[in-house]
Automatic annotation (TrEMBL):
<keyword id="KW-0474">Menaquinone biosynthesis</keyword>
<dbReference type="InterPro" id="IPR026046">
    <property type="entry name" value="UBIAD1"/>
</dbReference>
<keyword id="KW-0808">Transferase</keyword>
<dbReference type="InterPro" id="IPR000537">
    <property type="entry name" value="UbiA_prenyltransferase"/>
</dbReference>
<protein>
    <recommendedName>
        <fullName>1,4-dihydroxy-2-naphthoate octaprenyltransferase</fullName>
        <ecNumber>2.5.1.74</ecNumber>
    </recommendedName>
</protein>
<feature type="transmembrane region" description="Helical">
    <location>
        <begin position="114"/>
        <end position="130"/>
    </location>
</feature>
<dbReference type="Pfam" id="PF01040">
    <property type="entry name" value="UbiA"/>
</dbReference>
<feature type="transmembrane region" description="Helical">
    <location>
        <begin position="38"/>
        <end position="58"/>
    </location>
</feature>
<dbReference type="InterPro" id="IPR044878">
    <property type="entry name" value="UbiA_sf"/>
</dbReference>
<keyword id="KW-1003">Cell membrane</keyword>
<dbReference type="GO" id="GO:0046428">
    <property type="term" value="F:1,4-dihydroxy-2-naphthoate polyprenyltransferase activity"/>
</dbReference>
<keyword id="KW-1133">Transmembrane helix</keyword>
<feature type="transmembrane region" description="Helical">
    <location>
        <begin position="216"/>
        <end position="233"/>
    </location>
</feature>
<keyword id="KW-0472">Membrane</keyword>
<comment type="function">
    <text>Conversion of 1,4-dihydroxy-2-naphthoate (DHNA) to demethylmenaquinone (DMK).</text>
</comment>
<dbReference type="InterPro" id="IPR004657">
    <property type="entry name" value="MenA"/>
</dbReference>
<keyword id="KW-0812">Transmembrane</keyword>
């Protein structure tokens, strides 16, 4: 029987900042527009968190039944590690998607923008087919594309839009910055798994690039996120003050990855990349609210 800690590991708590952070940025931009709504921000956060958890359980299930997780360098998965039946993990994924849909419908109703239900449906479909179905796009090296679209632009711009009915340039730049860190999170996760993914047919972008170029890409992606944060300061200058320490943090993380850390040694980097993303979102939100 899987323990509570096993389920927490299955939900991949280290990745959850990727869900919350775009909502923080989108709410900050909504505050710039003079229309922030904390209730709608809370609902957007619930939707994003549940979708992220659903993705993680769906990935656990699909990789497990394919045998991709048979030889893992990271923590054992629920399905691949034999901790519980595949059907239970699959059910957990769809329960998370269902709860996210309920919260999403409430948010859409408050915003009065019913066409957004279609965007939400696309998000659930994309979440499942990341590693599910006959031809999962995550196995083709397209995972970062999904992350940028849904955990960058849709989550950030969508949060702003449901609160203000507008999609200003700040939301798009913020979505790019936060989406890039989410891509870095996926990249470092996949760098860790290059040895096993290469032999199981999971051709992630990290596998396609190769170890060295994937590590360089991780650093460049983080640099791009900091540039986006500095660009936001053109609209609200205090954001730049918060980006300075984040730039130093990003440089430290990039150096650790470029040093050649591998396997289990990359797990703390995965955690810290998620925390960097959360800090990025908090810097934008708090700089706008407090200064």
């Amino acid at each position: 029987m899987a323990t509570f800690n096993d389920w927490l590991e299955g939900a991949r708590v280290r990745t959850l900042p990727a869900a919350v952070s775009p909502v923080l940025v989108g709410t900050g931009v909504a505050a710039l527009e003079g229309g922030a709504s904390w209730l709608r921000a809370l609902l957007a956060g619930i939707v994003a968190l549940l979708l992220q958890i659903g993705v993680n359980f769906a990935n656990d299930y699909s990789d497990g039944v394919r045998g991709t997780d048979e030889f893992r360098t990271g923590p054992p998965r629920l399905t691949g590690g034999g901790k519980t039946s595949p059907a239970v993990v699959k059910a957990a994924a769809f329960i998370a998607f269902g709860l996210a849909s309920i919260a999403g419908v409430i948010l859409v109703a408050l915003a009065g923008q019913w066409w957004l239900i279609g965007i939400g449906a696309l998000a659930v479909i994309a979440a499942w087919f990341y590693t599910g179905g006959k031809n999962p796009y995550g196995y083709m090296g397209l995972g970062e594309v999904f992350v940028m679209i849904f955990f960058g632009y849709v989550a950030t711009v969508g949060t702003t839009y449901t609160q203000t009915g507008t999609a200003p340039w700040e939301a798009w730049v913020g979505g790019t910055g936060i989406g890039l860190i989410a891509c870095a999170l996926l990249m470092v996760n996949n760098i860790r798994d290059i040895p096993t993914d290469s032999v199981t047919g999971k051709h992630t972008l990290a596998v396609r690039l190769g170890d060295n170029r994937a590590r360089i890409s991780y650093g460049l992606i983080l640099a791009g996120s900091i540039i986006c944060g500095l660009a936001l300061s053109a609209s609200h200058w205090p954001i730049a003050l918060g980006m300075i320490p984040l730039a130093a943090w990003a440089a430290i993380l990039a150096r650790r990855v470029l040093s050649g850390l591998a396997g289990q040694a990359l797990i703390p980097v995965l955690r810290d990349t998620g925390l960097l993303e959360l800090a990025w979102g908090l810097v934008v939100l708090l700089a706008i609210l407090l200064f």
